[in-house]
């Protein structure tokens, strides 16, 4: 049975800028109302374990439960770990393949009767960092190229050019020495294989240097749980670009998901 945080449902007062942010991940699905002007959670987040196997049916039922928990009636923004085009799932590397071809935006709108936008999870975390976190100074015309890299179960990437998001970059799947990069350098690999910080940091370095060769970003923002511990592995990374840990920590996923509602074309 899925583990839940035990909090009683809340009725939420909504202002124009309140959007329900839902961060859909391989291990947990988290939601909270977000003030998208301030980048702050309006209430403590509510989390439910991702059902295993992570099939669309089981996960949509959890998403429905979260929306109901908040008794939500306003707009909803979601981050999902895969490629999305106008709400349709094109890939879901760390979830069930049954997701491919499903329009998750339509499904959420059907469950909730609310307007919803769904974008890639790294893209949404990047939106939060660009507006409120480590990328703030680059979020403008002439701001240059920013590459957000989330190191978690997989590797997610979000590319920003002068503050504009280029959706669905999926550079966590570039091949390095014949292997999918996320299978070598995701944070989950360090834990699963009990790699030392030095060994894993070296792998992250090779990965980031490869991205640097291809795209010459001005700034790398490193997200995921490990962004709280840059002192453990930043010393193994040598880049020409600046590198900064994400500043929004765990909230980037939820805040960024809510910010997706602001995108003119939700891809
Ligand atoms: C997926 C990406 C996702 C990343 C982080 C990768 O396996 O292909 O879409 O952004 O994991 O969740």
What is the fold's blueprint, element by element?
Elements: E1 18-24, E2 28-35, E3 40-41, E4 46-49, H1 56-69, E5 76-80, E6 84-85, E7 88-89, H2 104-112, E8 116-120, H3 121-132, E9 145-151, E10 155-161, E11 164-166, E12 175-176, E13 179-180, H4 181-185, H5 187-192, H6 197-215, E14 219-223, H7 230-233, E15 242-245, H8 251-259
Parallel strand pairs: 1-5, 5-8, 9-14, 14-15
Antiparallel strand pairs: 1-2, 2-3, 2-4, 6-7, 9-10, 10-11, 12-13
The protein binds beta-D-glucopyranose.
Give a quick set of tags describing it.
15 strands; globular; binds beta-D-glucopyranose; five-stranded mixed β-sheet; alpha/beta; 267 residues; Nucleotidyltransferase, domain 5; six-stranded mixed β-sheet
Structure in words:
The chain has 267 residues and is an alpha/beta fold. The protein has two domains: 18-124 and 251-266, Nucleotidyltransferase, domain 5 (2-Layer Sandwich); 134-247, Nucleotidyltransferase, domain 5 (2-Layer Sandwich). The chain is 29% helix and 24% strand. It contains eight helices and 15 strands. It has helices spanning 56-69, 104-112, 121-132, 181-185, 187-192, 197-215, 230-233, 251-259, and strands at residues 18-24, 28-35, 40-41, 46-49, 76-80, 84-85, 88-89, 116-120, 145-151, 155-161, 164-166, 175-176, 179-180, 219-223, 242-245. Strands 1, 2, 3, 4, 5 and 8 form a six-stranded mixed beta sheet that branches. Strands 11-10-9-14-15 form a five-stranded mixed beta sheet. It has a two-stranded antiparallel sheet with strand order 6-7. The longest helix has 19 residues, at 197-215. The chain is globular and about 50 Å long. The chain binds beta-D-glucopyranose. The site of beta-D-glucopyranose has 16 residues, from helix 3.
């Amino acid at each position: 049975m899925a583990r839940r945080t035990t909090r009683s449902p809340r009725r939420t007062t909504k202002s124009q800028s309140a959007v329900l942010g839902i961060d859909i991940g391989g291990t947990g699905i988290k939601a909270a109302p977000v003030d998208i002007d301030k980048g702050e959670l309006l209430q403590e987040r509510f989390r439910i374990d991702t059902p295993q196997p992570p099939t669309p049916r089981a996960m949509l039922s959890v998403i429905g439960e979260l929306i109901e928990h908040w008794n939500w009636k306003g707009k909803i923004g979601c981050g999902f770990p895969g490629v999305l085009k106008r709400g349709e799932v094109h890939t879901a590397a760390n979830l069930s393949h049954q997701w491919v071809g499903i329009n998750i935006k339509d499904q959420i709108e059907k469950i909730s009767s609310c307007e919803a936008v769904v974008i890639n999870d790294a893209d949404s975390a990047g939106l939060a960092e660009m507006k409120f976190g480590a990328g703030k100074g680059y979020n403008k015309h002439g701001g240059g190229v920013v590459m957000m890299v989330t190191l978690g179960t997989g590797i997610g990437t979000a590319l920003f050019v002068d503050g504009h998001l280029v959706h669905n970059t999926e550079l966590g799947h570039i091949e390095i020495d014949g292997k999918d990069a996320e299978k070598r350098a995701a944070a989950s690999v360090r834990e699963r294989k009990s790699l030392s910080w030095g060994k894993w940091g070296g792998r992250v370095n090779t990965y980031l240097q490869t991205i640097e060769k291809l795209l010459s970003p001005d700034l790398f923002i490193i997200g995921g749980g490990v962004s709280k511990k840059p002192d453990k592995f930043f010393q193994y990374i040598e880049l020409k670009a600046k590198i900064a840990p994400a500043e929004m920590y765990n909230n980037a996923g939820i805040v960024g998901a809510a910010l997706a509602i602001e995108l003119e074309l939700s891809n």
